[in-house]
Design a protein that fits this description.
The structure is a single chain. By secondary structure, the protein is of the alpha+beta class. It has one domain: Ubiquitin-like (UB roll) (Roll). It contains one helix and five strands. It has a five-stranded mixed sheet, covered by helices on one side. Strand 3 and strand 4 form a beta hairpin. The longest helix has 12 residues. The relative contact order is 0.29.
């Protein structure tokens, strides 16, 4: 599976992560939380195009996320 980069905006600043289309949303949240030093990745939500990516067990491809996409990671329940 070919890897590609996406940008994730977080309260701690933006970061770029390498993913594949079959990467699960939960894996991306964990990867970004670890990279940015955010606590409690289970209390974070990932948004794309104004919509929360849920359930987190779904792969990125099921949400239409491709190379160069910009997502937003926020505390659960705060929205974008």
């Amino acid at each position: 599976m070919e890897a590609f980069e996406i940008t994730v905006n977080t309260p701690a600043g933006a970061c770029t992560v390498e993913v594949t289309k079959t990467s699960k949303v939960s894996e991306v949240i964990d990867q970004v939380a670890q990279q940015k030093g955010l606590d409690k990745p289970d209390a974070l939500e990932l948004y794309f195009d104004g919509k929360v990516l849920a359930p987190t067990s779904r792969p990125l491809v099921s949400f239409g996320i491709e190379a160069g996409a910009v997502l937003t990671l926020v505390a659960a329940g705060t929205g974008v």
